[in-house]
What does this fold into?
Amino acid sequence: MKPIILIGPPGSGKGTQATLLAASFAIPHISTGDLLRASKLDDATQEIVDHGGLVPDAMIMDMVAARLKQDDCKDGYILDGFPRTVDQAQWFYAHYPSPIVFLLDVSDEVILQRILHRAQIEGRKDDTIETVRERLIEYQRFTAPVVDYYRKEGTFYTIDGRMQLDDITDWIINLIESKVDTRYEASA
Ligand code: ADP
It folds into this structure.
């Protein structure tokens, strides 16, 4: 199936949705944030992540390329947290099949509440009020243009991220199932 991309501000629920969708379609959930947290980063990069900045595009592209080469990605995958800049989106466009893109739309107010709640549960170092503010600024500056890019270029849907978790998942699954099955298209 086509790659699935979930875009949304920090705290929009894209990680949760990506996990549910990956289980439902039996395809991998690739979160660049998780990949970074699982990597041994040099001090400068760690500093960027801890303060809510974006790490350099080239590093992310290398990481994503290495992950997508793995065998489990051949029948599709869900990207969460990537692409986060227009350069990342253009690089993806040049090298991979065209994706179905979902934007989880949530207000800044809801985001702050959710992330501060998550901070108590998960203890992520970058879940403080200051870094969340910084990540929202980075989102507006670098990732909002990615939304405009996909609005023009691709199969793109906006979802109200305040809906119930399960309703969002069902809605995405329905859209994907009505759109996708490329394995059959190939032999038609
Ligand atoms: P959230 O969506 O809640 O901000 P993520 O787990 O997606 O959290 O990302 C955590 C951090 O990892 C980001 O603030 C950023 O520093 C870094 N990061 C993740 N994905 C990317 C990316 N595609 N490009 C640059 N930096 C990234």
